[in-house]
Amino acid sequence: MRSFTAIAALLAGLSLTAVAWAQDPAFDGARLSEHIRILSADDFEGRGIATPAEQKVIDYVSGQFEAAGLQPGGDNGGWTQAVALNRFSASNIQARLTVGDWTLPLAQGEQIVISSRRPGEDHVMLMDAPLVFVGYGVKAPERDWDDFKGQDMRGKILVVLVNDADFEEPALNTFGGRAMTYYGRWTYKYEEAARQGAAGVIIVHETDPASYGWTTVRNSWTGPNFDIVRANADERVPMESWIQRDVAVDLFQHAGLDFEALKVQARSRDFQPVTLEGAGMDVMFDVASQRIETHNIIGRLEGSTHPDETFLYTGHWDHIGVGTPDANGDAIFNGAIDNASGIAGLIELARVYAAGERPERSIVFIGFTAEESGLLGSEYYAANPIYPLATTVGGVNMDSANVYGRTAAFGVVGFGQSDFDERMAVIVEGQGRVIQPDGNPASGTYFRSDHFPLAKRGVPMAYAKSSGAFVEEPIAERLASRDAYTANRYHQAEDEWSADWDYSGQIQDLQVYWSLGQGLANSRDWPQWKDGSEFGPARAATAGERE
Ligand SMILES: [Zn+2]
Fold it and tell me: Which fold has domain 87-289?
């Protein structure tokens, strides 16, 4: 216990460079392995939400939390938070674009994908709806940027570009250069369009700025879509859609416009919305919606002196469930790395925290549901927090741990957003590793896991893990295993547990997460967003609630 306190005291203080890395706390690779093996076994059926497997996951994770010594942290003194979701399926889709005499029929999955997540609407019909090109569809007051220029968008279909205004020309540096800001994500485009009162959105798919091809768009949007249950239907537009780039070019041409030239105009603060004169869209489809209930799993260690202030550790327990059989006839998407490995880390953190000296602030451990359906368990928690967000100090999210051994670097997704960068750098350097930004910030990885719904509401969240070169032999073999996961196992039935995994890298990462949380939980310190972060204003709004 001695070194727990020593490290925490050092981290809470200012002489951070003096931290000598200690072996404590003792995270246990054998325990990590066993949790992953159990949670990803075939009898957990790929941990699909609202399936019989869900209760098995809840029983296992809450049982481990209880054995560690946590208290239930969910609704009504229990281990779970009920998460109500709507499942939407669009069918009988008919759509076409017209400009004068020119008509282009749009087939679902081919030229377009159409969906709706608007509650209470079982049929969507838009006839000759006006089309307006709104550039990147961004309203960012802290960047002095407004693509709508106060024009009335009600009842219109917005045609928007994916990513943000300086993706093609990073030197403009209007949205942080090549890294994608949240304004670049499709989720933002839909949210802003709803705030503008639009009838629909058409996102123009381009492979580079989206960072994925049309196949991904088609696979993601032609099946059922989920959303948290929303009391206010106006938070969603009636029609959400993507079209292929070639369709957009064709449409613009028939309306007398040059798509590429308009894209260039959209990179400027002076951009004005452009109505596609004489153009319209007809669209009709049915929407079946069904209410389902799933659960976040929550355990808590109450703080000794400031129990109302909370540090979070999070990871998602769900995976894809049972899908179509692969070439080997395997239909169970076991999700061993994604994200039984993160839940194993969560359980180990709970065990180590509960065994140590009680921190001054509370520590809350959350296994989120429905991450694979669009970060919905975390969205639900962030919209309905059990522990107030204003006094949530910050947190660490874990998704898909490194199971291939120690690496030379520690990669921070969303590097530059918050002072977690500096806080983690001190710890990481004490381990003899270097901290580095995420390798591909243009793809918007920061917006693709469960820390994000919290970050969006102003809670500083870290999302970081081992990266870069392996440091122990057999290096080539380790690298091959990591590459094979990305190429052949990620989101496939072969994401299965292996007895050969090396947890030394994950353990180093857990030590970083632990030191970060332990230091903050025993201080009066509040982590800060950096100047220019799009999440700073949401945090500033509740400054009065933090001492
Ligand atoms: Zn994941």
Answer: Glucose Oxidase; domain 1 (3.50.30)
